[in-house]
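Reposting from the mailing list since nobody answered there.

I have sequence plus structure tokens for a pair of proteins and want to know whether others read the tokens the same way I do. The first protein:
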Amino acid sequence: MPKAQETILEIDLKALKHNFEYLKSKLNNGTNFLAVVKAFAYGNDAEEIARYLQDLDIDYFAVAYANEGAALRKAGVTKPILVLHTLATNFDVILDNCLEPNLYNAKILDEFIAFAEAENQKEYPVHIKFNTGLNRLGFWETDVAYVVSKLIASKAIKVKSLFSHLAASEDLSERDFTLAQIERFKIISRNFSKALGYEPLLHMSNTSGVLNYPEAHFDMVRCGIGLYGYGNAQKESANLKPIASLKTIISQIHKIEKGESVGYNRAFKSEALFTKTATLPIGHADGISRIYGNGKGFVTINGKQAPIIGNVCMDMIMVNVTDIDCEEGDEVIVFNGNTTSAETLAEGAGTISYELITGISQRVKRVVLK
């Protein structure tokens, strides 16, 4: 594998395949698999990843917003795409790209029905979300009769699936809460399907739900973080392979004498007779936020950890390489699947892998390993 010559994000499709097959092995035969590829496939490359998963015979995709789905269609993705956060201003984009909207409250339901009827649609596929405890998006259990009455009154749309979202499936100390969510969703689903007269697909499980609550797999599961190599628990992460490696290089090496400072606001001051620092071409505009500064984050150079010193700059970070044999142009590992995972780096700064990987800027060059 060639060494990095600039800041790059390497994406390993073989690792993606491994994760997909591992997660799928946990499902009952006939359970559909929906891949969540929102936010550039969790900071990677949504188009490359969706095309690859489509070739692996994935059943469904999900994005957060309509424009993300439109980009996948333009890239040649033909599988069904669920838009998780439907906004009325994007109805045209949804229809033009054969996307399937999530309708989660009375306003968006009424507006989409009116739009579909005005466009002379017949049984356009939609998804209905119910809130069972996350309290983010979704109808309430008491809304079942209202929603069904609206659906029966219009021939313009038809429910493809009914779904909810687990709030704490990765946290086994919240098992009672999660089981209550699952039971609530079962009751809603029974009442909804009985009143509607047909049975849409049911789905509730995210990655941790797949791994921890097989009773909640229903007709389909929605996997995001697990596909990208993180299982929200050390035990499960060991079974997965992070697909992304963020790499950069050393641009310049400095020798800082005692009392000299490094970076903005003089946040680091050398206390040693001399400190050797390396400047790297990556900063908070690339996704390495300021929380990783001042020793909370580190990179790996020639197999050794180099702590980030001072404040993270927009385009650069400085690291302490006093005890590391290195030179300008050497490759630097920010995170990968071998030496330091994004999970480890994020935890050290008091955050989660999701925030780190989804924050990698689009100006960072993506290199797809096929």
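The second protein, same order (residues first, tokens after):
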Amino acid sequence: MTSIFVIKYPTITWNSTHFLDPKKEIKSLYSPINIQVISLDWKWLFIYPDYNIATINEIAFPQNVPIKFNITSNSVMNSFFIPQLGGQIYAMAGMNSILNLISNTTGKYKGISANFSGPGFSEMKFIAISLTDKNTFDAWIKNIQKSSKRIDNMRDYQNISTPSINHPIEYFSQD
């Protein structure tokens, strides 16, 4: 009986680990929404490359649509985490981490950094909004595309990446 126990549980662990791999794409009728995540000192920059927009400390997506996060850091290691959706993964400078999530219900969820990263760490929070449908998501996108704020060059990026604590939500557009 001992030999069965030893063989059985490593197999379960192996299978569960690969089944729950955060890089594994979520099968859906919908194409995933791509969001690039950059951990800054002490705020989050979210870039939606398919929509030519960016936000600080707020993301949105339609419910039941997969989200593919490409995550990195501008400086120190952080940890990207939306507890109600699951999946905590590290953001590291010079590295790219991938996390696939999906929200099956609408609502506003708290996102955090789950890794100590300096004096502003405890306030490094963001809002993740799961919207009812694609039309509501498109309206959110169109609202951000009206923003006059831009990130057009390295100087703009360096300005927003300046360390700040309790940074407000901001919207940027290239349209």
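Reply #1 (J.P.):
I read it the same way you do. Residues 72 and 91 are 5 Å apart (CA to CA).
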